[in-house]
# Entry
Amino acid sequence: MNEKQTMLSDMASALFAALSHGASTDDWGRIEELGFAGLLLDEAAGGFGGSFEDAGIVFRLAGYNAVALPVVEAILAARLAADAGFAASGTGTIAEAASGAISGDGFTGALRGVPWGRLADFVAAPAPDGGTMVLSTAEARVEERENLAGEPRDVLHFAETPIQRTDADLFGLGAAARTAQIAGACDAVLAMAVGYVNDRKQFGKPLGKLQAVQQALAVFACEAAAANCAAVGVAQALDRGDAGFEVAAAKGRANMAAGVGTAIGHQAHGAIGFTEEYGLHPLTRRLWSWRSEFGGEQYWMETLGRQVVAGGADEFWSGMAGRSDPPA
Amino acid sequence: MQTFTIKPFEVPAEAAALREQVRSLIREHVPPGNIARRANSWQVNDPAFSRELGKAGLIGMTWPKEYGGHERTALERYIVLEELLAAGAPVGAHWIADRQTAPLLLRYGNEEQRRRWVPGIAAGEIFGCIGLSEPNAGSDLAAVRSSARQDGDEWVLNGQKIWTTNAHIAHIMIGLFRSVEGSERNAGLSQFLIPLDTPGITIRPIINLTGEHDFNEVFFDEVRLPADALVGTEGAGWTQATAELSLERSGPERYLSSMVLVTELVRHAAHTGEPAAVALAGRFAAEAWTLRQMSLAVAGRMAAGEDPALEATIVKDLGNSFEQAVPLLVQQVVELDLTAPEPLAQLTAQLLQVSPSFSLRGGTREILRGIVARGLGLR
# Structure
């Protein structure tokens, strides 16, 4: 990490650890105070001028600490609003999907999977005809829903609401962000599991001395490492530009890791990890939610498969390995 | 907790040019021939191709010029290796010498050893093998019993090595022997550079389950070597050998052994449009891309002079599991006639049979996971 990233990481770590899954919307001011929403905005526009790699560090830490606030979404929404020339005020969020139609410059229909939609001032969403649209939520009718971890995932209904557009790939950005959150949450579950098995004694010794337990946690460590490397890789690709391949590969791979990690994390904890009072479920229930949000495993494998097949077998390796080569 | 530390590194500016150089060399010097030889190609020997790579300056890329090397960067070497492996080029003959034997000599060897052997290795003309495993010292390497005793100015070796890949084509072995009589476990071990034409050495083939001859038994019966056959420090053999193992842990060969089959699966999916095959192509791409990020990250840190041992172990375990799963998944998804001459069937058939070795060679899966567990703070 460079100096700027270390500073960002320290700042996010401290705040997110304090907020964690117990955060309430009353705490939102503390996120705003530090200017996180401007992370991906140009410095000229009062932002932090951060790269996607910088943002990835914050997203990962949001996942690691299971922060129950839409910090990730607000960062992406602010950037998309700026891209779309939408005069944003207040807090933005993003939608996972839209159904409905655009006529003229107005959207009529519903947005689904809107984190904290009930509190947002504006929302960026995949436009039904491609690209991204940004619109005010002032006139929206809100249908409140929650994901597995109790985080708001609302449905917002709009009627002829004016939109601003950008051709950014919101669904891809959402997938990249969830990849980083999955990476962070996997590391946090792994840390809890390691701490627990070193602490908990059975058969007269810590569980962590048992080879069966060690081998299972080693498998988890490999998966967590894969998710983390995928998250960094996709962020770097977003900074280079075209990241269609990496978004699909990274979210697809991270979804695999989330499946393995939640299973092993719970197994290592035994019954205590299954209780409400113990702090494992805020992480694992988020992981299960994120595993579906912005594309499940098969969705991304099929998407990537179609890309790869269209490129042709003889271009498969060179296409993949050459993507991060410096231009000749 | 973050188990896998990633630090930024620059992909070499010459990457694209290096890839093209490797591709054209393969087009020119690797005849189409038997497609199955492109699977697991770093265990497929073609001494003539090794010499061509030597001539092209693609062996010993990072070594000093005075020893026949080319003083390129570690990441440039990485690009060359991944291109060779992804194409299934037969790089087995010189692989061990390039990856381990010469780097070990450059690190621990004496000047005479370096001058005598390293330039020939860089030329693709001298091949090496690794003398670690013994009949009763496999995963438990510290159980090595083969001995080296001093007799005047000479060392005298006795004992047996086993599973020695390429002993039958190699010119030299770097072997681990117990040089202190009565020593136990990882104390009292030393490494020796052994020309394999030395009297008293007998090499016998062990034929693998596909009928191929890769590995051997090597017997040492009163084998006399000069005093300067010792590599590095007497008694430091364990430290040196485990450093050697870390050189071989996280390279691109740890996930690319089945890449040629992945490419053929992509071809099949493109040809048939079968949705399951298309999705499998995507899954392979996602896993391979992720592993490449991981393997490159380790290479980048090693290039910066660090020793990311835990990360390297993670890459090997995950990479082996991937390359091992490839033939099974292809077989699961595609209706194959394994007797047919088509590349997809031939490569699947070959890899189904050889892939069990992927999670055995260079440290078994269980040993690796034990190392990862220790890195996590367990044990």
